[in-house]
Specification:
It is a single chain. By secondary structure, the chain is an alpha/beta fold. The protein is built from 23 helices and 27 strands. Helix 3 crosses helix 5. The longest helix is centred in the middle third of the chain and has 20 residues. The protein starts with 5 loop residues before the first strand and ends in a 6-residue tail after the last helix.
Length: about 750
Amino acid sequence: MNVPWLTVPGEQPQGAATGTLAVCFAPTGAHGSTFASWRGRLPEDTTLAFVAPPGRGTRVDEEPVTDMAAYAEATAAGIRELRGGRRLVLIGVSLGALLAYETCRRLLDSGVPVARLCAVAGQCPGDFHGRGEEVTVEDARAFVAGTGLTDPELLADPEFEEVLLPPVIADLRLAAGYNGRLGAVPQVELRAVWATDDPHVPEVTVRRWAEWTRGDCTLMSVEGGHYAHQENPAAVISACLDGLPGTRPSRRSVLGAGATAVASTVLGLGAVASSAPAARADAATGRGSVSFDGDPTDPVGLAVAMIRQNTSNPGDGAVTLPLARMLQGIFRAAGVGTEIVPTPKDGNVHFFARVPGSGPATKKPLVLLGHSDVVPAIGDTWETDPFAGEIRDGKLYGRGSLDMKGVNAAFVAALLRHVREGAAFDRDIVFWSDCDEEQGPYGVRWFLTEHPGKVTAGAVITEGGWVLDQRDGTTPMIASLTCNDKRSLLLRLETASYATHTSKPFSGQAVIRLGEVLDQLGQWRAHIRPNALSRRYFSELAEATTDRPFAKALREMLGARTDRQRDRAGEAVVRLSETPELHNAMLRTTLAFTAAQSGYYPSIVPGTATAEFRAAFLPGAEDPGRIVAELRSLIGNRATLSVVGNPGETEQQALDRLRGYLATPDSDYDTDVFRAWQSAVRRTHPGVRATACQFEAVTSAVPFREQNVPVYGMYPFTVNRDMLKRMHGTDEHIGVEALRQGTETVYQLLAGLRTDA
């Protein structure tokens, strides 16, 4: 034939005017023969074509192409010449999925329609960053051995190795130089096919393909390993070609309302399909409705729908009923019992869903606790609508995306995935979406007081610890599960002079004095005093980081014997950290300034000025009374510092109450739930250290910990400094792919509690 980059095997028609042309892209190091078992299994109107690049098969003596753009351009040219008037389907396996994707881009750009793009057992383009790392023969040997590309006995034969390794090296170099984020995302129907026994490309990885098309995306699963296209060809063919116009009709059996559809064709067993992420907004307002028509096991679609429910808490509680009703519909459709519990504020409710355990009633329930309210998104200008749930450049923007509707979506999606699989747990699993976590009187403490015995928890998982990357920003480094919270004290600062006409300003004005005192307090630093949990975390971090100066500073801080040595090393830790604000807060008492007020008329110099700030304390570290005394000594008589307690409380009562909170013991991390989390992290983040940790903020955990119920905190997805800085701030966001991977961690955690595994 006259198109060297494509081969049509057998006596199949070439250049036909009708039917389907299925172009197959082989996995790393392979060529067209990997699809040999597909012959005779295709629909009658389908022609099979293999991509035959230089350095493979009959072209083994030619120099291989290691540039993705050149590869895709040559393949697209060959397809344009061969296609005729046929419908075009591109099917890529493993690395071939990327080759098919890039070829699809070029075909669409040149006006050639692509009916469907199929990615089988392949990582999505966003997983490749084009750094062009060196690839050695040893890398190729390790790849061949690790993926089972050939028998070990054949690989041990030097003559066979000479034939096998060069194309593998070429393909590995092609992947190393590929940056999938360059170029526009195409408008094409996409099938992402996951092999259930594939140890290299799990379901969570295949799901990411949904972000790489502007058309419909369907996730399919087939039985088999990484090379399922050879092990189970009928199922893969069905997954890729089923439902195309003009092909043989397929039989579909639906497993129940809103459940997964199982497709089968006359070619053999088909594949399990689930719809791509979807969430419906109200047409008039752009906000979420109380219905959800997406896939409830997709955390991205769920998070978008949750963000579109504006549950801003102005200080006295949010209106959470519409969100609760949406969640109720989602869980009821999956056959899970729910309950909505009202509070004295109209529209402010708690939501519960319970999956009953199947074993002996000896283990108390695990509660997945996520708050439904969010802080307001006012006062600062956002680049996106804070309640639109917009996805841009792989990031999901919106108020609550990080704190904590993204976590809630991960909880719900992971739990319902188990429900869909017919899971049996060794205890009840309760999802609780509470209200008034940010502010307001009707949060968890109110609920446990007003409804004693309603929720008898054996353990609680809520918001808390983080997953952090190495300095390269892409390699996961450490995951933490928090076992205690910091607690804070509200302090008020007041300066006074005298009020006068603005025409006669004077030195020592109250506003100026307030600014001077605030500046002094802003420069104040407490001693570095890591408590037991923080020491455990930073010890693990010293082993996890690949940054040697950072590790050295960590070890010096942990080994310091005096305040001076510890402060000096601790300041180096903060300075060298990629998340300095986070690590600073885990090491000492901190001050955060939240409000300032003065003046009431434009021609009057005010006689008083006030500011409020919070001092946050580590359990087991500084005494709050001593810190208040130190701050008063620092500012002297230039301002008055007072403790703001609950109504009717004296300063001593407020300090004693805080001391009681700080004395609450850490949650025990020698439990089956903690171990299930560690095991889950090992599965989803191989090689990453998973450790107990101190949380830098306060959560709804305290009432449970006061009852000796272990409470663990997690934000299961990877975050960076910018993301952390935008928590409660402008343009709050999380990474879409990180959310999917974090959901997989939650799924694996729950899998550790199944009795049917």
